[in-house]
TrEMBL record:
Residues 43-69 are annotated as: Disordered. It comes from Anisodus acutangulus. It comes from the Eukaryota. Residues 58-69 have a biased composition (Basic and acidic residues). This is GOLD domain-containing protein. Residues 321-423 form the GOLD domain.
């Protein structure tokens, strides 16, 4: 069992610094250009022909903003690739393809064959990445579990859960479920895996019966698996850093799939033009090459990212993160407020401020208040006037705090305030085991 003594889960500030070492080279400008061209070609196909309900849903999805989560986008890309591979199968092509009556038809069939090969290669790489990444995360977590029956119980629970999930997928396929139905189920299962990790961290839900066996599991590990995927947790840094290029690729593949779907139902009305074939082939080539580049990049980022850091590292990063001061002009008769949400008691609210003085020495009122869930306000720091101040306050209640700089007493002079404020979470010391206490 790997030691977690003195460690804490990775923080968003840590990931921001870590990701600085892994900049993603911008996507080819062709991604945006070809997405627009494919979208325009799709609009031409359906402008004189009514859309079916399914086609309307595809149009809406292609024109909507992609999902926010990185892994949800990966599943969305995988779904669209499978949908297009289904369309490209010879038995699912428009009847006009079957005869290959002209050299032009034969050339188009050859182009579609090449597109299929590119999609199959991309799908294989994506499936391999997702499978290996899932195993990597689970196995890394397990290295911090007690290497006895407790770890075995967690592994057995996971194996049973995965068998049940696969049985669900098989049952859906055997009952004639569509590719879309299957991926809706797969994504729900992915979210269930996340819930189970969070439940492991809080020892609730399906893991409640294992609570008594989890004695000895490092608290830092339970904190990690519970909070890692929170909407504003560490992974939000990943979404903001690497989400935009992935969103562009998701939008591109949705538009390629939309074009093929619309084309197949309307193929008899008018065959593909030479320009449309060229654009389609170029779009698939750019999409598959750029998407595979993204997968390779994100795989390397994941493989080198640690789960835990020392409390000292976290403190230093938080200090650096808050090193930048803000400046604001507080007009005469007005106030400036900074609201903070404190999640844990024994957190420290720290401040450092000063006025940018002119020819006349000036001061500004400063105070802090706490608002409880019922809306009742309590003054934490009494109002005083300062030219500058630096201090901190240890919270005994979680909830909403507000720092207030008050220039309401001034009739003529605005105050230029330079400040920084931070909320520093408590550092939890590792608990001593029973054996350590006995010693």
């Amino acid at each position: 069992m790997a030691s977690t003594e003195g460690l804490m889960p990775i923080t968003r500030a840590f990931l921001a610094k870590y990701y600085d070492k892994y900049p993603f080279a911008p996507l080819s400008e062709d991604v945006c250009r070809l997405t627009d061209e494919i979208h325009s070609m799709s609009s031409d196909l359906h402008k004189d022909s009514p859309l079916t309900q399914g086609e309307s849903s595809l149009v809406h999805e292609a024109e909507s903003h992609p999902p926010h989560k990185v892994d949800e986008n990966l599943w969305k890309n995988r779904e669209q690739i499978e949908e297009m591979l289904f369309l490209l199968e010879s038995s699912n092509r428009p009847p006009a393809f079957q005869s290959q009556s002209t050299a032009e038809d034969a050339e188009l069939v050859s182009v579609l064959g090449r597109l299929g090969e590119k999609f199959r290669s991309t799908l294989k790489n994506l499936e391999t990445f997702q499978s290996k990444n899932s195993e990597f995360v689970f196995n890394t977590v397990m290295t911090y579990m007690p290497q006895d029956f407790r770890g075995t119980l967690i592994r057995q629970q996971r194996e049973r859960s995965e068998r049940n999930k696969q049985a669900e997928v098989d049952a859906l396929i055997n009952s004639g479920g569509s590719i879309r139905d299957r991926y809706a189920l797969l994504w729900n299962q992915q979210m269930e895996r996340r819930r189970q990790l969070a439940q492991l961290g809080s020892a609730t839900g399906v893991y409640k019966t294992l609570v008594k066996y989890l004695v000895g599991v490092p608290q830092v590990l339970l904190d990690f698996v519970q909070k890692i995927n929170d909407d504003d947790g560490p992974m939000e840094e990943q979404r903001q850093r690497y989400g935009p290029p992935l969103y562009s690729l998701t939008k591109m593949v949705l538009n390629i799939r939309l074009f093929l779907s619309l084309l197949w139902r309307r193929f008899e009305a008018g065959k593909l033009s030479r320009n449309q074939i060229t654009v389609l082939e170029e779009a698939v080539d750019v999409y598959t090459s750029e998407f595979q580049r993204f997968i390779k990049f994100i795989r390397d980022v994941f493989a080198n990212s640690p789960f835990f850091i020392t409390a000292e590292e976290a403190g230093a990063l938080e200090a650096r993160k808050s090193d930048e001061y803000k400046e604001v002009s507080v007009p005469a008769g007005k106030t400036h407020e900074v609201a903070l949400t404190v999640d844990a008691i024994n957190s420290y609210i720290a401040w450092d401020f000063s006025l940018i003085q002119g020819r006349v020495d000036m001061d500004i009122g400063f105070s802090m208040e706490y608002t409880d869930p019922s809306g009742q306000k309590t003054q934490i720091l009494p109002y005083r006037r300062y030219g500058a101040d630096q201090g901190n306050f240890c919270t005994i209640l979680s909830g909403n705090y507000k720092l207030i700089w008050d220039n309401s007493y001034s009739t003529f002079f605005k105050k230029v305030l330079r400040y920084k404020v931070d909320c520093i979470p408590p550092v939890v010391e590792p608990e001593l085991s029973t054996n350590q206490v006995a010693e």
